[in-house]
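Handout, page 2. Input:
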Amino acid sequence: MSGPVEQVTEAIRVGGRRFSATWTVLACDAPTLWVIATTTPVGDARIVYGLRVDSDALTRFFRTLTYCSRRWPWTMLDANLTRAALTKQSDHALANLKRVLEGGRAG
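Output:
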């Protein structure tokens, strides 16, 4: 990736915590790959979005989130409670994206 650094700031609410995160684009290989990451006082996260064509010539969308809290007791909860909260939030975000891509509106 060349040129200026691409960033966006997001207000986040998850697991009873509220904070802002500035996401930085680490990789972009349109239309197959987009990688973003953030470092905040509460933790570090990285999201990989990608498209792959499978053996049936169907295009598959995937999203992988990795997250690591910085402070106790949250670090002890990353493997279960934090993961569950982030999975629920991710499922909602992906459902919104699907609706938009299919011509609807995000809910």
